[in-house]
Design goal:
The protein is an alpha+beta fold. The protein contains 2 helices and 3 strands; from the N terminus they run αβββα. The two termini are 28 Å apart.
């Protein structure tokens, strides 16, 4: 399963925000249910105003139960490990 280019670009933006110290965890309300969500955001300023770009939310409960990982047969390109 190939990761689409827009997802890779968003991930690169997220990594840059984290490296620059411009990442925040913000409590928001789910637009559909009103339930609280803890949203990972890149933060910055635009004309003096603070802006937050949401990238995703932390999964409630056990995240290992929320997702099915790719199978070993899938073509997965892992980044090189650096120390």
């Amino acid at each position: 399963m190939a990761i689409p280019a827009h997802a890779r670009m968003n991930f690169d933006t997220l990594l840059t925000a984290a490296a620059d110290g411009n990442l925040a965890l913000i409590e928001c309300a789910d637009a559909a249910t009103g339930e609280p969500r803890y949203v990972i955001c890149a933060v910055g300023q635009d004309a003096g105003d603070c802006v937050a770009a949401p990238f995703g939310h932390l999964t409630p409960g056990n995240p290992f139960e929320a997702y099915i990982p790719p199978s070993p047969a899938d073509d997965i390109a892992l980044p090189p490990v650096t120390s």
